[in-house]
Every structure is written in C-alpha cells, then in structure tokens.
Specification:
By secondary structure, this protein is mainly α. Helix content is about 60%, strand content about 5%. InterPro entries: RNaseH_sf, Tc1-like_DDE_dom, Transposase_5.
C-alpha cells in the first residue's frame, strides 16, 4: 500500500460513511504508518475537511483495531490450531471474523475515553499538540 492507494481507499470507503459513523464533527484516528503520515495524505485530509487525532508513536494499546486483531487471532489459533495452506487460514479468518458481534466492536470503541485518560495519566497530565 502506498499513500495514493490509501487515499483512494479513504475516498471510496471512508468518506461516504464517515459522518454516518462518527457524526458531523468526527475526528479520524490512525497510526503513524508512512502512508498515513505522507504529505499527500495530510493534504488529502485537509482538502476533504477531515480532522485527524494527533497520535503518539508506538501506541498500539490506544488503537481499538489492534485489540480487534488480537481477539481475531486468538479465535483463529484457539487450541493451538495450525493451517496447512493459505486458503485454509483465509477461510478460518473469514469464519471467525463473521462470528464477532457488533457489540464487541462497539465496546472496543467505547473504551477510547479511558484509554486516552490513561495516556494522560502516564504523561503526568501533560498533553502536547
């Protein structure tokens, strides 16, 4: 994935649903991957009126999707399961993904205020912009 591909994904899938998901004054959260921090991506967000949360580096504990990947991985490899082919692994991932309830995803998102609060406490109450 390069910055242009990331922006295309955002254009095609994110923008049409963004206000529906996050409301009219939503803020977008992403990590510091190079495609996310590219100058052209920054300009894309400005051009499209998307406000970005400034995210500290090396902070996967603050990102709900990282927890989601952990939940999925534990389900896929439960009981020490191993797979003989990529096709079998893909099938297992798809199967386990479909079993994850919306309420689980919502709960991960709802924990964000506490995650941010914990971050502020760890930094001694100092927030830098």
């Amino acid at each position: 994935m390069n910055a242009a591909g990331y922006q295309q994904l955002l254009e095609q899938y994110f923008l049409p649903q963004s206000e529906h998901i996050g409301g009219p004054f939503f803020m977008f959260q992403q990590d510091n991957a190079p495609v996310h921090t590219a100058k052209s991506t920054f300009e894309w967000f400005l051009d499209n009126g998307v406000h970005i949360i400034d995210w500290p580096p090396r902070s996967p504990d603050l990102n709900p999707v990282e927890n989601m990947w952990g939940i999925l991985a534990r389900a896929v490899y439960a009981g020490g399961r191993q797979y003989n082919s990529t096709a079998d692994l893909k099938k297992a991932i798809s199967s386990e993904w479909s079993k994850i309830e919306q309420k689980c995803l919502q709960k991960l998102v709802e924990t964000m205020p506490n995650r941010i609060y914990e971050l502020i406490l760890k930094q001694g109450g100092k927030i830098s912009y």
